[in-house]
Amino acid sequence: MATILPRTNREGQVIGYQAKVRRLGHKPVSKTFEKRRDAERWAKSIETDMDRRVFQDYSQADETTLGALLRRYREAITPKKRGAEQEAGHFQVIEDDEICLRRLSGLTPQDIASFRDRMLAADYAPATVVRRMNLIATAIGHGRREWSIHMPSNPAEAKLTARPKGADRKRERRLVPERTEIVLAFDPDQQIDIEVHVRVPSEEERLIAGLAANKHGRWLVPMAQLALETAARQGEICALTWEDIDLKKRVMTVRGLSGDGSKNGEVRRVPLSTAAIAALRSFPTFEEGTGPVVAEDQALLKVTFGRVVDRLGIKDLTFHDLRHEATSRLAKIYPNPLELMRITGHKSLATLARYYHADAEELAQRLA
């Protein structure tokens, strides 16, 4: 039987009623109401659910805020993941938002939608906002499954809260090739303007020259060249050791930052072109033949790369774009997508398609 007890203030006045339900096989549950009939109605419904074996204890969801759940997930689960540092950074931004003050039992899809709109208003990219919404959904899902935090539904799931448009738009940034421009120049002998053909260097040529002029160029130049030849990610290159390089077999083993696999969790063996081998030979650590290939901090090299690109006036180019460029180049050598996927490490054709960008001119040449 349920117990209904009046709650009184210091003056002895009844200010509410606490309903407490005890059943064999269940932890005692209680809830306070202003009116006795509401307490009785709630207690009866709980007893009925317990008898039907469908009762869910929502007390933890009543007591836990979203912020507390996210912090627990960030501290207990995130460190075990690849990309833990990046994920923890996203969580810290989320935890500064007002949504984290909401108790899980009262969290609604409308709250998640408001969080989405605040992130977009703060000029975060749609893909970043989607990532953070998905992290909220993942943390809530884990709490429901593993930590007995019962909730009727997960309000952050995509089926309940729409994601921002444009988050899945493919990035198609490739390096601009060399070209010739026609400019007018004054000929003093003929006293007329004449057309002069001027060679404009490719973005790759400008990039390599700009990196070489930097004090960290001894690392960045071979890294960029290796990325363009192998489609390896920056983190994968920085995680390489000379034990991963077999110049005789012309193979590079990519193990990723964890040593157990790259971003998708798989170790892959990548064939090395003559240019890739030349890039490897130009690393300052080549003569040592052991230990890390890149003996410099990855974060520092990433920042330096961005500063060099900005100084050169090359717009909207990241190191990861070299992977896009390399994948498109390798597709000409390996037209079989399954072979190409083994080199690039993509696990599906859909993912590979996000990185392979053949322009119309290239496709037209194949028709000739």
TrEMBL record:
Residues 194-368 form the Tyr recombinase domain. GO terms for biological process: DNA integration; DNA recombination. Keywords: DNA integration, DNA recombination. The keyword Ligase does not apply. InterPro entries: DNA_brk_join_enz, Integrase-like_cat_sf, Integrase_catalytic, Tyrosine_recombinase_XerCD. GO terms for molecular function: DNA binding. The keyword Chaperone does not apply. PROSITE patterns: TYR_RECOMBINASE. This is Site-specific recombinase XerD. It comes from Nitrospirillum amazonense.
